[in-house]
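Sequence decides. Consider this:

===
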Amino acid sequence: MRILVTGFEPFGGEAINPSWEVVCGLPHFCHGAEILPLRLPVVFGRAGDLLTEAFLKEKPEAVLCLGQAGGRTALTPELVALNLQDARIPDNDGQAPCQKPVVPGGPDGRFATLPVRAMVEAIRQAGIPASLSYTAGTYVCNDLMYRVLDLLAGYPGCRGGFLHLPYLPAQAASKPGTASMALDDMVRGVDAAILAIVQGGPEAGQLGQEC
C-alpha cells in the first residue's frame, strides 16, 4: 500500500507549520505502507493542483492531508469538506476569496472516505488526544480537502481525507493560554492514524454505521 501524505508550508506569520514537521518525522514505511511525502503551499487552488499532479503520477491507494489548526487541543480527523472558499486572512499569494465555491457546480459538501472514527480511536489508544471534527473551516485546508475528495470521486479504489494538528509549543510560546502539542506526540498520533488507514474500516460518509 502507498499513502500520499501532505503537509503545508508556514502561513499567517508563523515560522513553522506542524503539518510539514510531522510529515518529515514519519518513517518511510509505516505499518507496511510506503509513505509518499508532499509539501504544499498555503494557496487556494494551487495546493489542490499540486496534489492532483502528484496523485496522477504516483497513483497511491490513500491520501492523508495534514494541516494546522491553531487553538485545537487534539488531533482532529475531519468528517466533511465544504464547497466554500471564505478566507479570514489572505493566503500566501495574497488571495482572500469570499464566499466562492471550491469547485463550481460541485456538491455542497463531500465526506472523507478514510475511516475517520477508527483513526480517532487508534490515536487515542496511542495515548494522544483525538476527536472527530465536523468542520475543516473555510480556508486552504478545507479547499484542499474538498479538491482531494472531488478528485477521488473518480478513483473509487483510493480513499482520502484530512487531519488537523494543534500548534507546536514553539508557536504557542508567544500566544499565552493557547494549546499546543509536542512534535513527537503528533508524529505518534499520525502514525496511529495511518495504522487505522492500513487496517481499513467503514468510510466516513457511510450512513447507518455506529457512532
In short: The chain has six helices and eight strands. Residues 37 and 141 are 17 Å apart (CA to CA). The chain has one domain: 2-199.
